[in-house]
Design brief:
79% helix; mainly alpha
Length: 142
């Protein structure tokens, strides 16, 4: 629960900066990683395997950023990495699936109604926040 709240606060901060300046600050991600590590050491609510598998999607996104010349920015990728470290495998995968689905719907809307083009930049962190909220609501219902 604490990790979810911490991740939510980080996503709100990063969503604001992503929308306003298209930047995600490394210092926020670093603080998130340190606080998540402290939380894991104190609370021990996730297994080590879940934590390490939780960072795999973030590592994949970092690789995607490098290969695609940052069509997904490094800030987004490192934020996904830190969220995976904080939340573990199941929750990061659910959050990412929901986020990618929501951003895909938004991109389709922009293209269909001529508000955007194929190369239009879309801030991704607000969709990560949306995915986290939807995933959290789903966890409460189940």
């Amino acid at each position: 629960m604490i990790q979810s709240v911490l991740t939510g606060v980080v996503l709100v901060i990063c969503s604001y900066t992503d929308i306003k300046s298209q930047k995600i600050y490394k210092s926020v991600i670093a603080v998130h990683l340190v606080l998540a590590l402290i939380g894991h050491l104190v609370i021990r609510d996730l297994t080590v395997v879940s934590i390490f598998l939780g960072i795999v999607p973030g590592l994949g996104c970092i690789l995607l950023s490098a290969v695609s010349k940052e069509s997904m920015g490094y800030g987004d990728a490192f934020l996904i990495f830190s969220c995976g470290f904080s939340l573990g495998t199941d929750r990061i995968l659910a959050m990412l699936f929901t986020s990618f689905f929501c951003v895909g719907i938004w991109a389709l809307w922009l293209v269909c109604f001529r508000h955007g083009k194929k190369k239009t930049a879309i801030p991704f962190v607000p969709f990560l926040l949306m995915g986290a909220v939807i995933q959290g609501m789903g966890a409460l219902l189940l």
